[in-house]
Every structure is written in C-alpha cells, then in structure tokens.
Amino acid sequence: MTMLAPARRDFVDASRPAGDNGEATAATYLEALQLLERLHRLMQDLVKDEFERLGRQDLNPVQALILYNLGESEVSAGELRSRGMYQGSNVSYNLKKLVSMGYVHHERCDLDRRSVRVRLTEAGQEVRQIVLGLFRRHADQLAMSGVLDDPPLAQVNLQARRIERYWTEQIRYIY
Question: pLDDT class for 56, splitting at 50, 70, 90?
C-alpha cells in the first residue's frame, strides 16, 4: 500500500486565501486525503485491538471488515469488493480463507456459473455483531463528546459522497 506523501510546507501556505492560485485549496484537499488514509488505517487498528481484547486472533481486521460489510446480503465477490475498504488486500484470497474458516458460505450462481455468491454463516454473523458493537460504542462516545456536532457528521458525509461521485466520474472518463 502506498501512502500519500506529506504535503510539502514549501508547496503552500495554508493560511493564504483560497484565491491565491488555488494553492490553499490544494493543500486542504491533500490534507483531507491524508486524513482519510490515516482514518482507514486507524479503523483497522481499532478492529484488530477489539479482536485481541476478546482473545480472537483467528481473523485479521480486513477479514472482519469484509464480514461486517457483507452483512445480511448475499452478493458476488465483485459487489463486496466495490462496497468495502480493503486497502492493500486481496479480497478473493480473504474470501477463500473466510469460507475455509466457516465464516462465509459460498455457492455458484445458477444463472452465471462463473459467478460465486457469498453470504455469512452464523459464525460470520457473530463476528459482524462484534464489529457493529464496536462501531456503535464509538459513535455513542463521539456523540456524547460533541465531536460529531461541528460540523454535523451528516454534512461531512455529504461532502465525502460528493468527492466520491467526482472521483467515480473521473475514473469513468479515463475509459
């Protein structure tokens, strides 16, 4: 996995108005990208710590997040990959491991025999509940501390969805 290079201090003075050739905007955007990457890594560390605390070393954080994102659905591996955040991991390999460990059930699709559909087993549902509980605890604690109020998290999510839509459009224009 490649990490974004820290923003060069000589690249921009973030205190300058955004109208200065967009340098401040670029610096803020680069900082946001770095924060997203660090948050993702920290989320995986939090999941890892939770499983260690519970004495469960059978799953790595990526596998636990795959189970969490699979949820109640029955999907193809491709759909699961597009839903989740599996930075630096091989989803197919991890799904194969999860099947062999009894967390995921898989079967060939009746309509397209090349496609495999996956869903959680009861053991997979238990892991999903652990991750869900962790996320809910954090949400409650952050809400009580007021961290999620300014700006409101719903606005932050709206901004992130807009960036996601822009990036998706950029990828489409390449092809």
Answer: very high
pTM of the model: 0.79
Residue given tokens 């501390």 in the structure block = 145
How many residues in the chain?
A: 175
Residue indicated by tokens 């197919």: 92
87 has a pLDDT exceeding 70: no
- In the block, tokens 């709206």 appear at 158
Q: For residue 88, is it left (φ>0), alpha (ψ between -120 and 50) or beta?
A: left
Q: CA angle at residue 96 from 85 to 117, to 5 degrees?
A: 80
| Helices 61-70 and 122-145: angle between axes, nearest 10 degrees | 100
Name residue 116's beta-bridge partners. 108
Domains of the chain are 23-174 (1.10.10.10)
